[in-house]
Amino acid sequence: MSTIKLVLGMVAAENLHLEQLDMKTAFLHGDLEEDLYMIQPERFIVQGQENLVCKLRNSLYGLKQAPRQWYKKFDSFMHRIGFKRCEAYHCCYVKFFDNSYIILLLYVGDMLIVGFGIEEINNLKKQLSKQFAMKDLEAGKEMI
């Protein structure tokens, strides 16, 4: 929480832009690293094949691996597009430009994006939206 307060203080002191995104179904984006099987969901059981199981191809809500796998996928994407992760707070990413920077704070599926240039922020939002299902909440107003 102290990182959020620090960044919001920077927004106020430096008159930065503040945008907010909501990741839809964040935990469903994670890739599994091991084979996981589950019983067939009730409404999908094929008559005569009740004893078969399903092999999961992606993460599901409720899996103990889901939060970690989501974070690993997001972290990998952020590094690919040139962001550096903060050492002290692993859900804070920074990218520097010639005369500006962008900070992205991640809390589960909620994101705050802070920066000087709205064009750079909009470009980041486009990149994120191409990779993940997102809802653009535009100017940040509230955060849990």
Describe the overall structure.
Residues 2-140 form the Reverse transcriptase Ty1/copia-type domain. It comes from Vitis vinifera (Grape). With 144 residues, the protein is an alpha+beta fold. It has one domain (2-139): 2-Layer Sandwich (Alpha-Beta Plaits). It is 29% helix and 27% strand. It has helices at 2-14, 66-80, 118-131, and strands spanning 17-23, 37-39, 53-55, 84-85, 92-96, 101-107, 110-115, 134-139. The N and C termini lie close together (10 Å). The model has no long low-confidence stretch (mean pLDDT 84).
Describe the SSE topology:
Elements: H1 2-14, E1 17-23, E2 37-39, E3 53-55, H2 66-80, E4 84-85, E5 92-96, E6 101-107, E7 110-115, H3 118-131, E8 134-139
Antiparallel strand pairs: 1-7, 1-8, 2-3, 4-5, 5-6, 6-7
Report the helical percentage.
25-40%
Q: What is the count of helical runs?
A: 3
Biggest β-sheet: strands ordered side by side in the sheet: 4-5-6-7-1-8
Order of helices and strands: HEEEHEEEEHE
Using the coordinates above, name the CATH class: Alpha Beta
Radius of gyration: 19 Å
Count of discrete domains: 1
Organism: Vitis vinifera
Pfam family, one: RVT_2
Protein name: Retrovirus-related Pol polyprotein from transposon TNT 1-94
InterPro entries: DNA/RNA_pol_sf (IPR043502), RVT_2 (IPR013103)
Key features of this structure:
6-stranded antiparallel sheet; two-stranded antiparallel ribbon
